[in-house]
Amino acid sequence: PVGLSPPPHPHQTRSPIDQAHSVDKDRSGVISDTELQQALSNGTWTPFNPVTVRSIISMFDRENKGGVNFNEFAGVWKYITDWQNIFRTYDRDNSGFIDKNELKQALTGFGYRLSDQFYNTLIEKFDRQRKGQVAFDDFIQCCIVLQRLTDVFRRYDTDQDGWIQVSYEQYLSMVFNVV
Fold it and tell me: If you ran DSSP here, which 8-state letter would residue 177 be given?
């Protein structure tokens, strides 16, 4: 299963605060990227992508402390749960992975219009297992990176025609602000 660790009993649900307490292994009141990574499952028996974990933490860490407090964790918990539901929706064969066609359906559903060749590029970039498909954590990372790049592109695409003209340094700034 992908997402957060399951509750101890099948019919029992855990609140985000209860979940946060169990994830905060050092009892510091702040959940670090390492603690969050250990609490997450990508369904492949491999560690959750550390880049994805850091990306998620940075979205919710309002005080730049390198982790999230229990209140911020509630947002993290909802964010991951929402992604889990999206992932399951597009993982049509219930393999625990998103293949190229499922990725295309997902991103088309999000409003992206990309070439088949570009979907190959995305699979190549985000398939850490090298199986021609993307695990849950890498799917989140793919979507985060694509959204950030799109946001930066739109800032320069003032007439919204899908074309921009930028200098080399502007291009580098665009990319380095995302990666």
Answer: T
Over residues 103-129, the pLDDT tens digits come to 999 999 999 999 999 999 999 999 998
Helices (H), the chain: 16-23, 33-39, 50-60, 70-90, 100-109, 116-126, 136-156, 168-176
Structure tokens at 127: 């398939």
Instruction: Report the greatest alpha carbon distance in the chain.
Output: 57
| Domains and their CATH numbers in the chain | 16-177 (1.10.238.10)
CA 12 remoteness from chain centre = 26
Question: In this predicted model, what pLDDT tens digit does every residue of 73-91 receive, in sequence order?
Answer: 989 989 999 999 999 999 9
- Give yes or no for a contact between 93 and 133, defined as CB atoms under 8 angstroms apart: no
> Pick from 80, 77, 83, 119: which is nearest to 99 by CA?
119
